[in-house]
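Sample intake sheet
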Amino acid sequence: MCGIVGLHLRDRALYPQLGTLLTGMLDQMCDRGPDSAGMSIYGDPTWSPAGHATVSLLENPVTAEDFAAELAGRLGVDVTAFDLDPTTVVYGPVTSEQLLDAVRALAPTARIIGFGTEVAVLKGMGNPTELAHRFGLSNASGWQGVAHTRMATESAVTAEGSHPFSVGPDQCLVHNGSFSNHMSIKHNLEREGIVFDSENDTEVGARFVAKQLADGVDLEKALLMLNETFDGFYTLLVSNKDSFAVVRDAISCKPAVIAETDRWVAMASEYRALADLPGVDSARIFEPEPEKVYVWHRQ
């Protein structure tokens, strides 16, 4: 079943409230996905400060403190790390590629679950609300957030199998539904040299979109191409460092509702996740149409 929530803030005055608002939205979706949860926060000064690259990973073999020291020694700069069990978040004043290379060299068995200059990705197993509080999500600030509560259908219940899937710089994809032809698409992508970390069908969608973006296609076109390529029933929320997008399949049996005001744009699997947002009573509220891509850009 799964639950999706996303919040894109237009009003800078709301940035300090991002974590609190997203936590409230996520809490309303717990019954749609009690197995595990994940969230991505854009622009938080604690986890992804300006001028720094951030990497999020699972299965870090050492403590966050020791890992930061090892990375600092390798990179020659100060590195900060947070232990948000089971996620480790690290950042430093280097490029994303430099930090990624250092993380992979020092922790080759770790799973990279997010990287970029804007986003921190957090994942775990268990009750989504409890995870959010353990991570300190309510204290986060920033301009955009996405979260997902998972009811596993296509793969095992693991932290790495939870959403969002973030396989490109500052990119995240969350998914309610299933892709019926994902294995054939996965094999095609593997033949082009793309490596997968899981058996999750959502990862196939995320890597398909990431490839289009890397090839220079814009987000709207990438999601139109996904509609043309993937079969199944799905609602997707896709975010990157300057955009927030929603798309559904042709049948649109997976629920979705969008609310929009001058101060924010929000999306959720059900209206109850939007009901406490500031000014929702005057929002434009609508259900996204089948196969239509809705994109909002950072102002």
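Comment: The chain has seven helices and 15 strands. The two ends are 33 Å apart (CA to CA).
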